[in-house]
């Protein structure tokens, strides 16, 4: 559809601009403000330039958190995207079971994030949790509060449980929009099931996959509540991801300067990574033309 | 001669095992939560049982009778509904502008909007706290509702714009020729056409606002305390009140399940008609 | 190439259907090997259902269908060796044109040299040689439809090629071009082709024989000439021709038809007719004449359509269309109509009745 040039459209966009500006820009300004100042205490601040940024960028603690974050996000994407596609391919398309599956699959998405954490916290306990108890009775040594690997596995499985459904729903919708004529043509051409997936289903799902991947990337990079509730960042700081570290600094230790600098860098990293991700995915799309 | 053998097309159901396994995987933790909600704390901590030996409604009774508990739910529902309404009201005209017009800086504005969705709440926790405190809105529903618009408005604009693009401009022009004012056109003609888009956007607004913890806890203390924040009070010096916590958790699932049930037809159809 | 036989074929979506539940009423028909057929009819008449039964997408609830005497009623689409072109282009977007055309042969494990040879000859036939190595995604709708078609023809042993309103998404000026190419292809390759459409021009120009359908019934199967001159059903007469056939209530005795007191001599003599009797006369067979020389009508307006004029009139408050050749001058006193007897058909309960030539 051809769009007409109309500068008055700005009036329609004004409410959004004001609201989000208020919600975003003003708070961001305070962050920027803090990031370049230090305090003597008693609410007295003085300008220190980029000192905090240097400290943050060189901080080993933050490097570690970043490293853990990247590892976590990478694993999450590698599991959830293929799994989501796989499940979507197997979901019933019509009838009573289609609705039933849709509701059940969507349920984990609607659980408040701290409840998610709580559920899994209990679930994993060897004395009162189904998972923990079962593993213990199978003789497996499992303790997510003390064992680093167990903690990681628990958090990853929890995220998969929580968020794969988002990928499933989006891919399912994408699949539903493929006209049946394509499947009929594939039958006439005697295409194998793999060919049908590779040449019909996957290309037609690219749009949804982009949205799903971008959302999962962004959200997993910002994850806070669920791991916080289950492990509190532990054992030690084995599961301290970027957000957890930041909140510890800002609200826990009230290290406003470094926290603010950290915030800005954090935001920039996500922005850059999302933009890169987005550009790559849309270019893969364009290359096909 | 009657051919009664039904032909199954390419959509024929493959073995349902995979779906079954996945759903069982999803439901196990939920089942465990429900299981615990009907047990007493002694039973939960004392022994492991797949089904409550002493089935009790006590935990639920606590929640329904203790004001600080049920107010948590009411508060959450309040700000979630406020947020959904505000987000949609603001996003609709903006999405319309993006889908119909080009104007100076439109692409940049759109991208800037999306970046807000990428903002880590952790970054905004402290600034929001200071901001809303300074204007006297700390511990109010509107504060949380506004704070959540940070990520819900961009998402709504993103979703709605996709749907609006699917409605041809000719419909707008015909309406104007027929004498409709912009407002009348928008409410009487345009809105029904994008109904499933509004449904999808509303669903996501509801979902993301209902489940968010960090901001809703930071910005409230007593009056507007969200259910998520209220639940943290089960952890006290005397230990964790698992039974009540579990019951509270189960109750938080219900509004979401209801919402999904009502939009189930819109979601699949809606998601496929829009951006995808 | 195969002869297709329909034996007591019918389809309904309910069990134990009543008369009205049939989407496709029982029919028996044999389609000649190598002929071009059109299935013509309005939306919902059952033509797409019939096409899908032939291609195997739908299994008929009654009757059977045979390809060259082999019963394929329950055979899967894959095993019927047919090709189908759909209403919108179905191509594999991520592949090039060449890869699209190769696809069916590759799936059968054909020899590489054979594949290249077949792809080459089909590409020449449908004129896509210059875009063979382009990605299918960015092409125009008509190019994509040609590729859909090509993919169907690349297998030499295809039994029939089925078209389901394939020109729907094509630009009007390309429609003519594609239709011509399809006709040429048919002449060259002699596949059995079945073309579903609701556009009579497409049907009449493309097909050797046209199957006219309405409400699940097959009303008539014949050449375009037969359909025009002797429509077997009033619907056929009305649907074909522009404008369609005029229908008048009348009574008939022997070789005289009586239209509200006006007597018309018929070419054939009829036995006693019982039921609703109507006369069907095409606009081309009605003459405009002077007052008193024919049946009085009321002229609403006259449309000039270059090669002829269409007179829109009313008789007994029913619409009548008359085609007047462009060389005939219409004067204000010409307010009556006369039928040319060779164009007058008699219908009882909407079906054509033949009499004896007098």
Q: Can you give a write-up of this model?
A:
The complex is a heterotrimer of chains A (289), B (276) and C (358). Chain A has 289 residues and is mainly alpha-helical. Chain A is built from twelve helices and three strands, in the order E-H-E-E-H-H-H-H-H-H-H-H-H-H-H. Chain A has one domain (50-287): MetI-like (MetI-like fold). In chain A, helix 5 (113-123) packs parallel to helix 10. The longest helix of chain A is centred in the last third of the chain and has 32 residues, at 256-287. Chain B has two domains: 13-56, no CATH class; 67-273, Orthogonal Bundle (MetI-like fold). In chain B, helix 4 runs parallel beside helix 7 and helix 5 (106-117) crosses helix 7 (141-165). Chain B is an all-alpha fold and 276 residues long. Chain C has two domains: 4-239, 3-Layer(aba) Sandwich (Rossmann fold); 246-357, OB fold (Dihydrolipoamide Acetyltransferase, E2P), CATH 2.40.50. In chain C, the strands form six sheets. Chain C has a six-stranded mixed sheet, with helices on both faces. A four-stranded antiparallel sheet of chain C has the order 2-1-4-5, covered by helices on one side. Chain C has a four-stranded antiparallel sheet with strand order 11-14-21-22. In chain C, helix 2 (97-107) packs across helix 3 (112-125) and helix 2 (97-107) packs parallel to helix 4 (141-153). Chains in contact: A-B, A-C, B-C.
Strand-pairing-aware structural class of chain C: alpha+beta
Radius of gyration of chain C, in Å, reads 24 Å
Give the CA-based shape of chain C.
elongated
Average pLDDT number of chain B: 79
CATH class of the largest domain in chain B: Mainly Alpha
CATH topology-level name of the largest domain in chain B? MetI-like fold
Question: What is the domain total for the residues of chain B?
Answer: 2
> What's the CATH first level of the largest domain in chain C?
Alpha Beta
Largest interface chains and counts = A-B, 97 and 101 residues
Largest sheet, spatial ordering of strands of chain C? 6-7-8-3-9-10
- How much β-strand is present in the residues of chain B? under 5%
CATH architecture of the largest domain in chain C: 3-Layer(aba) Sandwich
Q: Widest sheet of chain B: strand order?
A: 2-3
> Percent helix among the residues of chain C?
10-25%
CATH superfamily of the largest domain in chain B: MetI-like
Summed up, the domain count of chain C is 2
CATH superfamily of the largest domain in chain C: P-loop containing nucleotide triphosphate hydrolases
Low-confidence stretches of chain C: none
